[in-house]
Design goal:
about 475 residues; mainly alpha; two-stranded antiparallel sheet; 19 helices
């Protein structure tokens, strides 16, 4: 089974750093391992298809495989960028060899736990895996052990743990909604007997699940941990947090949303998702306008795009759901690219304060070009991938007769685009600082930029048939159509 092989390789990547002494070797092994995982997941997803139930604990349907592919893509890019990042940190004396080994081990434990979330058949076990992602990533957020980093890590753990307690209550209530029968917390079992669930308990349970997992996903108003954690974490970890971790929490909500729709009919879960999605869009747009720190800006941008995904899911039309799932991948690739570019610029200039960043294009031509590329892509301009998925969601909204939702959706996106242009133009253009030496990106980091840049552009031009087929199957898991 290729899925089991992918999990085994990921586990091996978590164990091997403890037997290696050279940080360069650790980085190379990490890249090789995550490249193998990416290849195995891609072959399973696009060539062999979804095997369904693997055993009592795991299942891999189209929705699972799509999210696994999105996580594997970001993990590979982050592994490539991590090598140059950790090599430089070690050689400059900021961390030692043991710290590098700890980083690579936690990196793979983090990615493994995210894969397990997408494969869990039992919804209680899925909660355990989501909590595992919190524990693994908390140490990575506070990796540099500065006062701000430790504070951000504690804030992340406390807020997300409170959210996950609420999610656990939701899981328990879903079990009680089955009554005194022989039902289980298996997702397939719940879907098969959804009509027999107690409607009142399902309504209450879904609110707990949405708020609980929504805290981890970064939905407003439960998003307050996210800007601090993203801004203080090492750059590749920021990419994983924003582009993979948030997606696993979205995935958890979607599983319960499908059960709720099957139990209550369309409308209830979608209405709540739409409400929180629009709220996230509006609040993040306001905060993006006034940001000064480039990594915090990208963090609020993540809140915005999680809002976009929930708006698409809340609309509920098959076209909008397809667009929302496509947006999961498009946002992951684009935001990871932006975090890498912002991290390199911040390291080169010695600050992430956009008021002090000037002339990035002339001072750092390679990184600056990708920062400009990513800014336009993140703003939703054609021919980049985010434009494609946002347009698809908008088409679904108009088709469903959601005129007011469509108008607000376009307004908030326009505000965000204007804010991005304002912030990025000031940083990219102008006179570069004199007397400062800017280092070039490492070959592995450049490979990460090219990988993500190619994906962002390719998906903006056309969605390949093999990916479109997987997306349609994944949307059918959620909509039944």
């Amino acid at each position: 089974m290729l899925i089991y092989a992918a999990l085994a390789v990921n586990l091996l990547c978590a164990l091997l750093p403890w037997s290696l002494s050279c940080h360069r070797t650790m980085g190379a092994v990490n890249i090789a391992g995550h490249l193998a995982v990416f290849a195995l997941v891609s072959v399973q997803a696009f060539l062999l298809g979804a095997p369904g139930a693997l055993n009592g604990a795991f299942r891999a349907d189209a929705l699972s495989l799509f999210f696994m592919f999105a996580i594997a893509t970001v993990a590979l890019a982050a592994a490539l960028y991590s090598k140059g990042y950790i090599d430089r940190e070690t050689e400059e004396g900021h961390i030692g060899g043991k710290a590098a080994g700890l980083y690579y081990s936690l990196f793979s434990i983090f990615t493994l736990s995210m894969f397990l979330v997408t494969l869990a058949e039992n919804l209680g076990l899925m909660w355990v895996y989501v909590e595992t992602t919190t524990l693994a990533s908390a140490f990575l957020v506070g990796f540099h052990t500065t006062k701000k980093a430790i504070e951000a890590a504690w804030k992340y753990v406390i807020i997300c743990s409170v959210g996950l307690v609420l999610a656990l209550l939701g899981v328990i209530l879903f079990r009680y909604a089955q009554g005194g029968g022989t039902g289980t917390l298996g997702w397939s079992d719940m879907m098969a007997h959804a009509r027999e669930l107690h409607p009142g308990l399902v309504r209450t349970a879904f609110i707990f699940v949405l708020v609980g997992y929504g805290t981890k996903a970064g939905l407003v108003p439960m998003h307050t941990w996210l800007p601090d954690a993203h801004s203080q974490a090492p750059t590749p970890v920021s990419a994983l947090l924003s582009c993979a971790l948030l997606n696993t929490s979205v995935y958890a909500v979607l599983r319960f949303m499908a059960i709720t729709d099957a139990a209550l009919g369309k409308g209830y879960a979608g209405g709540l998702a739409l409400l929180f999605g629009m709220l996230s869009l509006g609040v993040s747009a306001a905060f993006i306008l006034v940001q000064k720190d480039i990594k915090r800006l990208l963090a609020y941008s993540s809140v915005e795009h999680i809002g976009v995904i929930f708006v698409g899911m809340g609309i509920g039309a098959p076209v909008a759901v397809y667009g929302a799932l496509l947006h999961v991948l498009n946002h992951a690739a684009t935001k990871a690219l932006m975090f890498f570019a912002a991290g390199s610029v911040g390291r080169g200039y010695g600050t992430y304060d956009m008021r002090r960043l000037r002339g990035v294009l002339s001072a750092m031509p390679f990184t600056g070009a990708f920062l400009l590329f990513g800014a336009f892509a993140l703003g939703g301009l054609p021919p980049f991938s985010i434009f494609m998925s946002e347009l698809t969601i908008l088409a679904g909204s108009f088709a469903a007769g959601r005129t007011i939702v469509s108008g607000l959706f376009m307004f908030f996106l326009a505000v965000v685009f204007a804010a991005l242009v304002r912030h990025m133009s000031g940083a990219l253009f102008g006179r570069a600082p004199e007397g400062r030496v800017f280092e070039d990106e490492s070959p592995a980091s450049k490979a990460a930029f090219f990988l993500l840049g190619a994906l962002v552009l390719a998906l903006g031009l056309a969605v390949p048939a093999f990916l479109s087929g997987l997306l349609r199957e994944a949307a059918a898991v959620l909509t039944g159509v």
